[in-house]
Amino acid sequence: MEGKSNLSFILNKPHEVVYAEREVPKLQSPHDVLVAVNYTGICGSDVHYWQHGAIGHFVVREPMVLGHESAGTVVEVGSAVSDLKPGDRVALEPGVPCRRCRQCLGGKYNLCPDMVFAATPPYHGTLTGFWASPSDFCYKLPDHISLQEGALVEPLAVAVHIVRQGRVSPGQSVVVMGAGPVGLLCAAVARAFGASKVVSVDIVRSKLDFAASFAATHTYLSQRVSAEENARNIRTTAGLGEVGADVVIDASGAEPSIQASLHVVRTGGTYVQGGMGKSDITFPIMAMCIKEVTVRGSFRYASGDYALAVDLISTGKVDVKKLISEVVSFDHAEEAFKKVQGGEAIKVLIAGPNEKL
Ligand SMILES: [Zn+2]
Ligand SMILES: [Zn+2]
SMART domains under this entry (predicted)? Predict the structure, then answer.
């Protein structure tokens, strides 16, 4: 890759970003491929690092390349790679686990303690010219899926994992707290899994209007009332009677939503924590206990989630194009962060640095 530019978008410290040339990565193994990055979506975690320089115990101590939701074009393949060739368009799965530990061998590689994940300190992200990856963490896009849609496979895989954690099955009722990108995608995946009622809940009317046009069968504007009262209102709005919802997903991380969730879930139902907000909250443990609610966490994605995300787009079951509010060029990358932070956009994509339409 002599002479190729590997211009990267780097966070030095909160609100201080720079562009710098970095060495084009070399293939580490004959199973690796090199991908020219074409599009990258910006999500809440990227914005959080840009604003605060840390998420929980992940602290940016050295300059770090941002970005982890990318699609690109294969430019070089290692000698052992048979399933990809130069020119193939791929969605990048941005975290590579050790493949050897108990979690990896158990199929839950998202829980690998030695995960190397893009734009999670100390590892660099994908807002860079070229990205080297094991070929099995690159998912070939069918011809009718665009590279822009390819950049949305990552958040869709997050939603697939959350909905799978909820064991959503045909005919069920699902409440999704939060109508940001992940909440919207959870609603769409729940529909694709056969849920007959999907209720999107948020505090912003315009987000709910979008949710109704995207995947939700019902919407509810959360009020400044008790969690029990919001739960009652949700049941009424969606015709869930006194029983409540089979599955409740929190994609907001907000304490009032989490509290309402435990009150709206049915006896024997399932609650999944997808959103990340404050690390400690007041949790309605009594409701959980007496209703025997199954409570599950959800973190990133694991075996089969990325492949299913590509399939859901490919078969038209989830139309991720609708989530793309705007595409900005690589040299205006910081604008994408400002737009996502300001809440004026659902998904903003950064085109480039290797632009290909
Ligand atoms: Zn993300
Ligand atoms: Zn592992």
Answer: PKS_ER
- For the domain covering 7-140+319-351, report its CATH number: 3.90.180.10
pLDDT tens digits for 75-134?
999 999 999 999 999 999 999 999 999 999 999 999 999 999 999 999 999 999 999 999
Alpha-carbon distance of 299 to 294, in angstroms, equals 17
Domain boundaries, the chain: 7-140+319-351, 160-297
300: which 2 tokens?
A: 């990133």
Closest ligand to C-alpha of residue 154 is: 1
What is the topology classification, in CATH, of domain 160-297? Rossmann fold (3.40.50)
CA of 24 to the centre of ligand 2 (A): 27
Mean pLDDT of the chain: 96
Residues within 5 Å of ion ligand 1, judged at the Cβ atom: 43
Compute, in angstroms, the gap from residue 334 CA to the centroid of ligand 1. 16
